[in-house]
Design brief:
Layout lengths: L4 H10 L6 H22 L33 H5 L5 E2 L2 E2 L8
Antiparallel strand pairs: 1-2
């Protein structure tokens, strides 16, 4: 699958990114390579391969997940205790998107 510079510009605009012309050319090539690799992966025969719902698994010595333990939640007051700026029960942060 081929990606165009206009598609890269469109995605960059959705992500609120300002890319230079050189970055657009570079990302067009890099994303094109990623999509070409995805096309190559689609050629693999996966007939009879069971889908995986979870790549992590539980086993005695190799357990990758810990048991869920129900406990009381942190609460707003404790969560905001070290906030540099808080108000009305929320974290206050500077405006970062001005569009």
């Amino acid at each position: 699958m081929k990606i165009t510079e206009s598609e890269v510009r469109y995605v960059a605009d959705l992500a609120h990114l300002k890319l230079t012309e050189e970055e657009i050319r570079r990302f067009t090539g890099e994303l094109g390579e990623v999509l070409a690799y995805m096309d190559k992966l689609n050629e693999l025969d996966t007939e009879g391969v069971e889908p995986m719902a979870q790549v992590l698994f539980e086993a005695e010595e190799t357990a990758t997940l810990r048991d869920d333990v129900e406990r009381e939640s942190l609460g707003a007051e404790a969560a905001l205790a070290n906030a540099p700026l808080a108000g009305a029960g929320y974290f206050k942060v500077p405006r970062v998107i001005e569009r």
